[in-house]
Structures are given as structure tokens and as C-alpha cells.
Amino acid sequence: MTLTYGNVIPPLDGNYHLKDYLKVREGFSWEQVEKDFSWYESGKVNIVYECVDRHVAEGYGEKLALHYLHGSKEVRCTYQELKDRTDHLATILKKYGVQKGDRVFIFLPKNLDCYISILAAIKIGAIAGPLFEGFMEESVRDRMLDCGAKVLITDPVLGKRITKSDFPDLQTVFVVAEAEDCTEGEVSLYEEYRKTRADQDVIEWVDLEDGFVIHYTSGSTGKPKGVLHRHRAMIHQYITGKWVLDIHEEDIYWCTSHPGWVTGSVYGIFAPLLNRATVVVNGGRFRAEFWYDIIQRAKVTIWYSAPTAFRMLMAEGDEELKSFDLSSVRHVLSVGEPLNPEAIKWGVEKLGVRIHDTWWMTETGAHLIVNLPSQSIKPGSMGRAFPGITVGILDESGREVPVGEIGQLCVKADYPGLMKEIWNNPEKYRSYFPYDGWYVSGDLAYVDEDGYVFFQGRNDDMINSSGERIGPFEVESKLIEHPAVAEAGVIGKPDGLRGEIVKAFIVLRPGYNPTARLLEEIRLFVRSELATHSAPREIEVLELLPKTRISGKIMRRVLKAWELNQDAGDTSQLDGGVCLRVALVD
Ligand code: WT7
Fold first, then answer.
1. Alpha-carbon distance 121 to 152, whole Å?
2. Using CA atoms, how far apart are residues 272 and 438, in angstroms rounded to an integer?
3. I want to staple 495 with a disulfide (CB 3.0 to 4.6 A). Which of 65, 359, 501, 510 is the partner?
């Protein structure tokens, strides 16, 4: 069929799970969805049972569950093998005293061991804490310390980034390697696999309200906060996997995110396995030719990625794209930052499919606003509320604003995916619910007359670079650890490729000269201690930072306005000093 541009892009023909959005929305109840789970009959709950063991019990043991591809390396793992391997590791974890509710951190590259470790920990009722492989020592330490990690599963390379003596609660470090590649005090998992026979009934039955996975996300102030999700979220993850990802029996599904980010766990592991998909697991870094090669080799049919990735692929050009056969792809989705209409256009013209935007957050546990494959897309909009989800655009006093007006994007807090708590921080948790019954996202948006939601930006200082949320405070704190830096204010600067880049304004300590070399040294310092995406791509030296008069808070809003040559708005709180730019010397 031909596609017309303008306000809407009509759906492509297809046998989609959810066809009539309005009708389904009307008759929707979460209780009805619960009936698809085995625990509805048996009363025995564990998300990993529903993801893995259940499919084996129902005769799908031979079906391919995970397909790992990295360079020329390929490993396949059926549902039966996935059950056996997770049983085996779960038995080992139990043998080492891991109990329900314990925090098991997983610090591994995106590979089968990573997936198996996360699933095995949850199988015995523990809380899995997946860590992004790009994290450096301090990022790992902050998270594991906050959470009182009892066990760490890592490999010989990433394991070198942590110092075991830093963690008072850490009892065991498992390393996916032979004993000779482990250092003292570490346990070789290869050896344990040979020594330990897997138990048969290894599953720990839990309550729907029990936690199963924790994801850390940046806050605008202070250290990253731990968002804990409960087994109940499986209801929401499963049904969005079915209706939004539109997973069918024959689908080969690929989510490009690492399980250390919530997209890589919820939509990289749980939602697709709950729907018994074949899940592609890709190792290695982002490069257009690798990604196209994965699609071609694994015959990916459903592909979930991010605007930044689509923009990079677009920038690679047609040559690259034309040298691969991507005809298996039938459904593409996006998340993490606003999806540019140009990317949707690229998808239609070059891949022959629409790219479906989805909106949610680490805290919300699963999709809230979506574009369904059977529905029209309005480029520039994130889509409409998923059935069972009530979106509200509220003003400062918590009242809903009229259609078309910008306000705070909020959601009724009555759905099963919503976080259970912020680890060790009930006050922070409460701050999400200032108005009765509403979850406040921190995003600004408006809704049109058809219920389509249009994202306007975040109402705090959060930076979103390549789909990753970066809290300015974490970067600023790191910057001022450098001996040359006295003060730092960090903002997101709009960038065509990455959405935003991290830009830092710093004030140097006396005795230091603002040379290009010094600034590069400072940048690399942040990169080696936090993560590549947190390192400022631009650093500018100032004589003073703009701050509030009374509390001395850095006014990032003013820095941003200055950077963008815009009016800074209300500056009545601004301290008297003049923030002169300092020229570089060499
Ligand atoms: C923030 C949440 C869980 C998804 C991955 C990011 C931004 C997310 C969209 C979208 C515009 C989006 C929002 C949100 N965001 N999806 N489709 N369009 N912005 O999870 O790290 O918790 O970040 O990402 O600002 O609040 P996260």
C-alpha cells in the first residue's frame, strides 16, 4: 500500500493481536489479563516460572528462546535449555545461601550468562540488580552499596572494576570463568557448574507484591535512586508485549538495549519471554553494519530500539542499508526520547515499515503511552494511553488542563507495572504522588482531541543523551573531584544526533590555566570514573556560576538559556555576580 504524509500515517495491513483500540479500551480490565497466567489457577507466583518453566511444561521446550550473536559467534538456547541452565545456577546460588529478597547484582556484557544470571536470581526469589557493562568503578559502587548487595555475578574483565572490600554486605563474587582466571576469594562458576547437580524444584514461590528487579536511575539531585519492581508487573509487561510489541508464535524479537537499562530488562527479557518469543541477544558495540547483519542473520521480525540509534543508522546512508536483506522486519518500535518525524519517514521509505514510538519510564515498569500497529500514527506524538491506563495533563495545583494545553504528564497510579518503592528512600517515593491518586512523571506534554500525547520536555534539569537519562548532579560532583575544578554546572545541550549532549560549565581553581589540554583531561577523568555517556562533550570555563541568592543552588536553567541565546526568564533569585566566559589559553 502507499503511505501518505501529513497528519497521520495509516496502519499497514497485518494480523495484529489488538485491532480495535477503542473497543478494547472500553472493555479492558487488568483482572481479565491475569487469567492468562498459570498462577491464576495454581496460586503459585514467580515471573520466571511464567517466562521459562511454564513454556516447557506446556510442551514448548524445543522452541528457541535465546539466540546470541556476536561477530561470527552464535549460541542458541531453547526454552528447555534455558530452564535447565537457570535451574542449575539457581541451585548454586541457593547453595551459597542466597535467600528470598537478597540482592544479587549482575555485571556482565550482553550475553547469555547475563540473561541466565538475572533469571536464576529471580527464580529463587532474590532481587536481580542488572548493571550496565559501561559502568566504571564508582557507578557500580554507588548502586551496590545503596542496595546492600549480597552477591555479585561478573566476568574476569568487568570484575576488575570493583574492589570487594568496599562492600560490607557482599558475601560471594561469582565469576563466569575457570578458577585460574579468578582472583582470590572469587568463585569460579565453571567449576561450580561441574561440582553442583541442579535441583529439580528450585523455584521459590513468592507474592505478587514481592520485588524481583531493581534499576537505578538518575535523579536531579543526589545519587542515582533504586527503583524496585514487583512480580505483579508481569501482568503489565506481558500484555504490552502482546499488544504493543505484537509478538506472535513465529516472531524473532530483538531489543537493542542492555539489561542494565530498564528497556533491556523489561522489553529485552521479561515481556518477550512471557510471550514465548525467540529473543535475539546481541553482543558488541553499536555499528550500523553489525546491526544490519544481526537482523539479516537472525531474521529479526520485531525490532525495538531508540531514536538515537535510528538517527545514527540514517546518518550511515543508503549504501550500507542496501547491502543487507532486512525484509524479515515487520514491526519496529522506539523508546527513550522524542522520536523525530524524519526517523518515521526514513523507516517508511527505507525499511518499508512504520516506527512505533512508546513512552514509559524506569519508575512506571512498562509502557503507558503507545502507538499500536493497527492504529494511525501522528508523527511528533508518542501515541495514546494503553488500555487500562489513564493519562492526565495537570497544572501545578493538580487540576486537569483543557485539551491542547501543556501541563505535567501524569498517570493514574492504579495499574500493575508501577514501581513498588524507591530503595531506602520512602520520601522520594512519596514525592511522585503529590496529587491524590496520580503518578507525576516530571515530563511536560499536551493531549490532542484524539487522545494523542505530544511530549514537550522534562520539567527539571535531567539530561537525555542518546536515550540515557543523566542527572547533572552526578556529573557535577565528579567534575569537582578533579583538582583543577572548583565548581561545575552541567546542562543538556540540544544535539541533532544524540537528542542532547552533556555540556559542563566549570570554574577553575586558582593557579590553573584554561587550556584545551586541561579541559580534555577533565573530560577523560569523568569518563573513566562514571561512564562514557556521562562525560561532558563540551566544557566551558566561567569566572562564576549563576546561583540562587539564598540557597546557593546552581541555576542550570540560566546556563541553558545562555547557551541557547534565550531569555532566562525569572532571574530574581540570581546572585549578583557576573558569569563571564573565560577565553581558552594555550
Ligand atoms: C524519560 C524516562 C523506560 C524507557 C527508557 C527511558 C524520556 C522516554 C520517551 C518518548 C519522549 C521519552 C522521558 C521520560 N522518554 N520515552 N517516547 N518520547 N521522551 O527510561 O531512563 O527512566 O527515562 O525518558 O523524559 O520521563 P528512563
1. 11
2. 29
3. 501
Separation of 290 CA from ligand 1 center, angstroms?
26
Whole-number Cα distances in Å, 584 to 302, 482, 492, 517, 523:
49, 18, 22, 10, 15
Residue 4 confidence (pLDDT) above 50: no
Three cell numbers, residue 192 = 561450580
How far is 150 from 168, CA to CA, in rounded Å? 9
Distances (CA, A) of 4 to 16, 162, 374: 21, 54, 16
pLDDT tens digit string along 428-449? 999 999 999 999 999 889 999 9
**Closest-lying ligand 1 atom to the alpha carbon of residue 362:** 22
What's the rounded Cα separation, in Å, for the pair 350 and 533?
Answer: 29
Can you name the CATH fold of 78-206? Rossmann fold (3.40.50)
Give the tens place of pLDDT for each residue, 263-302.
999 999 999 999 999 999 998 878 888 999 999 999 999 9
ipTM of the complex: 0.99
Ligand 1 lining (C-beta closer than 6 Å): 217, 262-263, 335-338, 357-362, 382, 441-443, 455, 458, 464, 469
3-state secondary structure of 446: strand
Give me 202's grid cell: 528450585
Helix-strand-coil split of the chain, %, nearest 5: 30, 25, 45
Pairing of strands 407-412, 391-394: antiparallel
If you take atom 14 of ligand 1, which residue's CA is the nearest one? 361
Listing DSSP states for 516-561 in one string gives HHHHHHHHHHHHHHS-GGGS-SEEEEBSS--BBTTT--B-HHHHHH
- Residue 504: pLDDT band with limits 50, 70, 90: very high
- Would you say 277 and 254 are in contact if contact means Cβ atoms under 8 Å apart? no
The class of domain 461-584 in CATH terms is alpha beta
pLDDT at residue number 220: 47
Phi-psi region of 466 (alpha: psi -120 to 50; beta: other; left: phi over 0): left
Distance (Å, whole) CA 81 – CA 56: 10
State pTM to two decimals.
0.87
- List the domain boundaries for the chain: 78-206, 461-584
- 98 has a pLDDT exceeding 80: yes
